[in-house]
Amino acid sequence: FTDAKTIAVGDETYTADNIIIATGSSSKCPPIEGLTLPGVVDSTQLLDIDHIPENLCIIGAGVIGMEFASIFNSFGSKVTVIEFMKECLPVLDSDIAKRLRQTIGKRGVEFTMQSAVKSITTSTTEDGKQQLVVNYEKKGKPQQVNADTVLIATGRKPNTDGLGLELAGIEHSPKGIAVDNNFRTNINNVYAIGDVNGRCMLAHAATFQGMHVVNHILGREDNIKFDIMPSAIFTYPEAASVGASEDILKAENKEYVCKKGYYRANGKAVAMDETEGLIKLMIDTSDNKIVGCHAFGAHSSDIIQEVAALMNTDVTTDALANIIHTHPTLSEVLHEIVC
Known about the structure:
- By secondary structure, the chain is α/β, with parallel strands linked by helices.
- Helix content is 26%, strand content 29%.
- It has three domains: 6-26 and 156-218, FAD/NAD(P)-binding domain (3-Layer(bba) Sandwich); 29-152, FAD/NAD(P)-binding domain (3-Layer(bba) Sandwich); 232-338, Enolase-like, domain 1, CATH 3.30.390.
- The protein starts with 5 loop residues before the first strand and ends with a helix.
C-alpha cells in the first residue's frame, strides 16, 4: 500500500475502488534457541523432505502437529510429540481430543504433555553422526529427546509485514488485520479475508469470506453463516467438529444435553475394521436444536458436514430422527444418537 486506494508492485502502481487483502499466514516459531539448526523445519519444509526421518520430534500438538505425527507414524518414523498444554487440539472437545490422542498413541506415537521446550542443540552419536537434541522441562525436571528432524508446529501468524498497512491507515495487530462482520477493515474500501484477519485459519473459511466480500461490494445479499464453521483434522483416524464443544457450553453455563454415539456399535465401522470412534452431539434443551457436534473416527469429517448442513437450516433433533439414513453407513451412528 502507498495509500488506501493504491498498491505498488515493483515499478508499477495499481488503483482500485475496492481492495481485498488475502496474504494468508506463515509458521509461527517460539523464541527458543536452535531454531536455525539443520534439520529443524516448519510444516512447509517438512512437505518438501526427500526421506523418511527415523526419529521425528514434533513441538506442538495442535492441528498441524497431530496431522504430521499421524502421517509420519504411518510412514514408519518413530514420532515424539512435545506439547506445553495439558491436552492436544484445544479446538476440539476435550473428551474427543483425549480419545484421539490415546488412539494415535496406541499406534506408536509418544506424547509428552505439559512440557516446555527450552532449546534445541546437537550431539554426536557413537558412529560419528550428528543428531538433534530437544531439551525440555516436564514438571520441573529437565529431559531430552533425540531426533533426526524436528518439526516446529506451534501455530501460524498472519502475513502483514511489508504490506504498508500503516501508509493506508489500516488497523492491525500481531493477531491479524481488524475487520467487521463484512470483513471490512477500518478503511471503508479495504477488506481482509482468510488467515490474515486471524478470525478462522481454515482454507474454506477464506473461500467463503471472499465470496461474502464480493457479494457485499456488489450489493448482493447472502446467507453464509460464519458461526457454523465445520473443520476437520486429517489424522488417522480423523477428527472433525462444527459448533460449540461441551467444554464451551459448560463454561458459558448453557442449558444443553450431550448425546453420544460409538463406532463400535455400527455395522459399517465393524466391517471396515474402524471401530475406534465417537460422535458427541450437543443439543439446546430449550428448542431441541443442534448447537455443536464433535467427533473422531473414520470419515468423521463427512459426518460433521451433514451436521453443518442441518445446523444451517435450524433442524431439530426430532426432525433428524425422521430423516432416512442409508444402511449400512457410518452416518447411522449420528441417526441412532437422536432415536
